[in-house]
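Below is how a single chain appears once it has passed through the pipeline. First comes the sequence as given, then the structure the pipeline wrote out for it. We keep one example in the README because the format questions we get most often are answered faster by looking than by reading.
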Amino acid sequence: MEQTSKGRGADAVALPGLIDLQVNGYRGVDFSGDSLTDESFVQACRQLLEAGTTAFLPTLITSSAAIYARNLPILAGVLGREEFRGRVLGIHLEGPFISTEDGARGAHSAQWVRKPDVAYFKELIDLGQGTVRLITIAADQPGAEEVSRYASSHGIAVALGHHMANEQDLEKLVAVGAKALTHLGNGVPALLSRHRNPVWAGLANDDLAATIIADGHHLPPAMLKTFIRTKGPGRCIVISDASPLAGLPPGEYWSMGAMVRLEADGKLFNPATGYMAGSSATILACANHVAGLDLAGLNELGQMCFYNPLRLLGISPKQVRVEEPILFDAKERRVFQE
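Resulting structure:
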């Protein structure tokens, strides 16, 4: 993290980079959509990398068998290109092994949710041609332990989320290899038991790192502060959860099977349900939100936005190609791309 006098801010110092483990699409390109092509995926990757993302995982949400059969090979083929080596690090499968319960399911379609099934998981891995690096599963579903055990034994990181899991559910999954929680505080019903709920259970489990959507809308500042203080920067991972509408102007859009609204302040939600519909932010914007709240300095940002996500995936920092330096101005509490 060298000091630099180039560009904006003579007192800025270099961050190692910004890694995003959850990107669902960008500028109108939906990685889980039926119109995805090699060309549109390449365009989205290039634009996202130009917008301050050092490296990322394209994410497929809970989808039909036809979409998995169509889109996973597209993603895998592009990931194999030299242009994206060290920058597009693999695929995140967020589902289909999640809860069917409203709220816990989030914006995922109940139609395509499946019970955890190792045989079907193997099919998805094969379709992804060995590029699946992370899977999100519900810890409270029958079969979750078997999927977690299989994934972990084959070098695929397991995160737990979109569930109503209790402490015992999480402990069982940790015992068979689960390492993280997917967007802690989100993917749960709006109303929860005040004492016994999956947010408290996840926050209290010291064996699970927490990915957190720091876009300024998914988690209020007090909750974000509590998560970081409780888990500690060493067990927090900042993600964007960028939707296909990230990078687009405010308006109403059809996305993920519903009409959603993107407001001028960046909030993206389904007005019919009130639930969030992904994020409109990039990882750069999320790092800025955390820095602007004075919740992290240089070292903490480096942990939560670079080293921790790579450690979860089992990827060495040396395998990441940093082409556009990311700088942090501690005086202005600002992160920017050189």
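The first strand starts at residue 13 and ends at 15.

See the next section for the split statistics.
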